[in-house]
Amino acid sequence: MSAPAADDAPAGAQTVRRAVALLRLVACGQERGVRLIDLVRMSGLNRPTVHRLLKALIQEGAVEQDPETRRYLIGQEVTLLGLARTRRFPLLTLADPYLIELAQQVGDTVFLSIRHGHDSICIGRRTGHHPIQVLSIEVGVRRPLGVGVSGVALLASLPEQESDALVADNAARLAVLGEQPQDILARVAAARATGIAHAPAGLMPGTSAVSVPVPGPGGTALGAVTVTAMANRLTADRYGEVVRLMRQTALAIARRHQERYPGHAWSRDALADDLLAGNTES
């Protein structure tokens, strides 16, 4: 968890920041929930502070505790508050037709993820026509940047100094997930060199995943388009064609975004040029 913006922040503001940061960590657990010990490790706060904040959040309905597992989950109040902004993901609205088309073209599951602070969040998922669909993550999943190919692709679109700092800030959370910062940085470097984040062995046994960034204003990715499939569907003879279609989709979304928001400076940097050239080498 990143430190408060200023050490001399009023106590009330610091408490709010800590509570919101804790909510983000709880959200990572989705329906599994998160253990108290892991919240302490990931937040960097002491156990009494975390317990006190959780107690207040439970009283407000923002957090729930499973009576059997004792794990903490996002509460109903947060879900209900979110309903006040039903159109809060304009990128998904303009990208959705392209995601549906890509899912039909490749036959496998397509995801759209965005960066939010130190996390990648899945905001859209569309399934293809193949009998076996790899539904590796649910919409709403929040993970530290670099966990999963979408997070790697998003990090790779950032300046190296910035991506390195984000991974360092996430070190405690990555450790809880069994990930090492140096391994994440190696994946990011490979993705930065090729424009592709590829995991031959996906999150689920026997699966594979590949992700490409959607170029946006200033060269930083608007999001990442990911395809997950059974590993035998992303072998060498098919991989290049799938990546070509993914890059075509990413570019179409970027163009649509440029049309929708013409005031934004859409930089045709090396990443965008690579997409335009249709380079599909891995």
Task: Please characterize this protein's 3D structure.
GO terms for molecular function: DNA binding; DNA-binding transcription factor activity. This is IclR family transcriptional regulator. Keywords: DNA-binding, Transcription, Transcription regulation. The chain has two domains: 14-79, Arc Repressor Mutant, subunit A; 90-260, Beta-Lactamase. The chain is 47% helix and 17% strand. The chain has eleven helices and eight strands. The longest helix is centred in the C-terminal third of the chain and has 25 residues, at 236-260. It starts with 10 loop residues before the first helix and ends in a 5-residue tail after the last helix.
Strand ordering within the main sheet = 5-4-3-8-7-6
> Helix segment count?
11
**Number of E-type strands:** 8
CATH superfamily placement of the largest domain: GAF domain
- The portion of residues assigned to helices is 40-55%
Shape: globular
SSE sequence, one letter per element:
HHHEEHHEEEHHHHEEEHH
Domain HTH iclR-type: 13-76
GO molecular function, one term: DNA-binding transcription factor activity
Keywords: DNA-binding, Transcription, Transcription regulation
InterPro entries: GAF-like_dom_sf, HTH_MetabolicPath_Reg, Tscrpt_reg_IclR_C, Tscrpt_reg_IclR_N, WH-like_DNA-bd_sf, WH_DNA-bd_sf
Secondary structure layout plus pairing:
Blueprint: H1 11-27, H2 36-43, H3 47-59, E1 63-65, E2 72-74, H4 76-82, H5 90-106, E3 109-116, E4 119-126, E5 142-144, H6 149-156, H7 160-169, H8 171-176, H9 181-194, E6 197-199, E7 207-215, E8 221-230, H10 236-260, H11 270-277
Antiparallel strand pairs: 1-2, 3-4, 3-8, 4-5, 6-7, 7-8
Helix pairs in contact: 1-3, 5-10, 6-9, 7-9
